[in-house]
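User: Before I run my own analysis I want an independent prediction to cross-check against. Here's the chain; please return only the structure tokens and, at the end, one sentence I can use as a sanity check.
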Amino acid sequence: MDQESSCMKMSRHFPLNAMRVFEAAARHMSFTRAGAELGLTQTAVSYQIKLLEDTLGEQLFLRQPRQVSLTDAGLRLAPKVTEAFAILQDAVTGLKDTSEGTLTIHSTATFASRWLARHLGTFQLENPGIAVRLETSQEVIDFSKTEADLAIRSGKGVWPGLKAHLLMRSHFTPMLSPQLAETIGGIETPADLLKLRIIDPNDPWWRMWFEAAGLPDADLAGRPASRFGVQAFEAAAAIAGNGVAILMPEFYADDVALGRLVQPFDLTANDGTDYYLVYPEARRNSRKIRVFRDFMHKMLPPIPE
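Assistant: Structure tokens:
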């Protein structure tokens, strides 16, 4: 039998629980105190020690009335077992420290670029012990298959097995560059938007907004069906004067202030989906997740019912 096969066989059959009991009993020199530490009865401790002795073919303890003592074999084994469990403890502690020291966030590209990225610096200043790794994706990740602590996703807030916290309402409205608006003498009514190129006319948000604006029959057919897939890219095209985009104005307040975009109407619409912070229910007590959740609630304005 080669060494690897021998190790695999030992890992399957070696009584590690009994070894833990032996380590505690050797340290306390008492089956009773070892049992109290491990939550076992004295009988269970005796059983585990006997199991280990049978496996090794060596007697490890001398049983005497009201006390036990280590045999020569036990004396040789005890310090090595204590060292081995210390190494295991260090490995687990190191893994936990590394895990708790890095927060991996998955987010939609738009939320990451238009809101999250500008606030992560503040989060890290307030929490210097937590490093942040930000991943962006339009796909809804599976936490069981993707390395992530939490995600920011758009939806209705109901995902089985996940805890969801509402972050931001997804209100949307048309936005365009002021220069493009000037090409038709300004935007006075919602119908004026139809005189210009619409970025992604197949986006269902357009139909919803025009219906809310009193134009349920707005003609969007026959227009170039450009599709950027990411709201941030559509905003970039609108800033460049390439058409009218339908956007979440909360993300583009800076562009409005700088004169790169205008929001011609106060009217916004909502399709029932909003932005949520989500993470597995089983990880709700993770300190780094709790700290980031509290930070997000602090930075975002309260959401009215």
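Sanity check: Residues 1-12 have pLDDT under 50 and may be disordered.
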